[in-house]
Task: structure prediction
Amino acid sequence: MADVARLAGVSSQTVSRVSTGHPGVVESTRRVVLDAMRELGYRPNSAARALKLGEFRTIGVILFTLATTGNSRTVEAIATQAALEGYAITLIPVAAPTQDGVLGAFTRLGELAVDGVIVIMEVHLLDATDLTLPPGMPVVVVDSDAGDRYPVVDTDQADGARQAVRHLLELGHRTVHHVGGPAESFSAERRAQAWRAVLEEAGRPVPPVERGDWSATSGYRAGLTLAADPACTAVFVANDQMALGVLRALHEHGRRVPEQVSVAGFDDIPDAASYLPPLTTVHQDFAEVGRRCVHGLLGQIRGERITPGTELVPTVLVHRSSTAAPPPAARRAP
Amino acid sequence: MADVARLAGVSSQTVSRVSTGHPGVVESTRRVVLDAMRELGYRPNSAARALKLGEFRTIGVILFTLATTGNSRTVEAIATQAALEGYAITLIPVAAPTQDGVLGAFTRLGELAVDGVIVIMEVHLLDATDLTLPPGMPVVVVDSDAGDRYPVVDTDQADGARQAVRHLLELGHRTVHHVGGPAESFSAERRAQAWRAVLEEAGRPVPPVERGDWSATSGYRAGLTLAADPACTAVFVANDQMALGVLRALHEHGRRVPEQVSVAGFDDIPDAASYLPPLTTVHQDFAEVGRRCVHGLLGQIRGERITPGTELVPTVLVHRSSTAAPPPAARRAP
DNA sequence: CTCCCGAGTGTTTACGTAAACATCGATGAG
DNA sequence: CTCATCGATGTTTACGTAAACACTCGGGAG
Result:
């Protein structure tokens, strides 16, 4: 900066004013400074700037994995929105979904140059670990029921599940089976709860839940059990990838979808439209989740009061070809 | 830090020595300082540290999107490996795959606190834009043919494609059709070139290439054309998601896979094992790509000489159920 | 006993920036 | 003509840290 000032024949403070876009610099001076900057290839040192300003203009994102569609799309949305607001994103991967792993990530966070954190993680693990967020660190949580302590942004899991299950009941199915996500997942839990609630409300029997780990392979395993049950005419699967596995299991056992069995998923990943058959599923608006996370976090960073509570992003059921009325034999007597 | 020093009754320099783990501090002193740190909730200011040391211990990653499996898995591998080395990852999303978008990302990069960059991007766009990497900024490129100017790490696209096409020929198919990725993609281009080369080498006819944009939907469109061509008995698709679309198109037109048409993909995304039928595909080792990127970049950061050239990560063909010998009528006369 | 050495700790300084304050010159009102 | 005012620019300072150097003190060699 001093070099630029010397070359431009001004003080370093004027260079600073130009580089931060402050007003009160006459156009001719500004031009000279910009030329000098270009000539010397000057670029501001962000460490010094951060030291001076006390802020990094960076947001940390703590998560387990980018391998699930939901996470990677949420992160992308967060990154895009943050960039729009002039913030960068620092990824803090948790090595393993264990207490130690989480603890390690939070320790690293403490040493990291971030103004706030977005935590994409089941709250169970947050609780199990006696992690200490650096005091005063703004935080927003995704995919968790920590609404009583932190601001939480999340997809309206329950409503999405309700829409899917009601849709299947309205088609005339006597009841709806469920392939759930891992028990530790709060999203999975809420989808399962809503499924159960709709069935109970309608006075329908509640079949036992099959469980998977979100992967297509685990969905396939669950599907094998369902395919063997002739009473099963409708399945609500907790995500699209497991639904893919369920479709495969049903297909391999000669149970046609949707003629004999209806299948509905959750997420509406792009591939779902190309499944065999194209999947009816609950569409999640990941971009909106990302947007609200960043908005809430920047609010805190700018000093707004922290308001715990959960912000829900609405979902919408996308009808495709994997759901239909049950075969006549299985139809419920009126 | 001054407060800690006062409480511990030592100089701030001793606090610094403790916090950076320098030797030459006697155990008793160390303990007192650590206690003081804990009591005051001290954590080092990374901006000041970065300013003093002239390094941020952060790597920037520039990419278009996390929506493709390849990108998100590569990023995850990079993040994990970087964390192991004590580096954080800053994501720099490119708003739009246009020159302006790329330029914007590189401009932001200039102001960002990073010690080096990993660019996950087609080199075409790098070239089209007159972007200026900050001089002296270490860089590693993925998915590009910039090997003459930058160090490049990439999957061995050509060999993977060769394996897939040869496998199909060995099964007895007269030739192999191809559904390629977008023309701007270097990966897509190399897969297509290798496909063509194998066919020409074997003296087989080279059918026209169908093109998609990596999405399942675009694969479906390409598949519709192929399904209408009775001479088509084998297809090599440039990624698994498009292969999913091709499978759907073939299925809807009553062409059975693999009895009538064989399909091979590229990527080996986890879902591919659950397609109908499970997909034969080329497995990419994204984790290894990420590892080598970080390794190469850290080498540069530590001052090793830059060695342009491409490092190829091997691939392996995974045999599943979507490929088989062609129907007798289509079999090639010996 | 003296001197030197080295381990342990303290003091000084600089990293690059921007806020706060100081200065300067031109303009317009009285 | 003088002086207050205001816009443009310069000077000083502090942000929190760690390297470089300085100092102290105990112990061993001569």
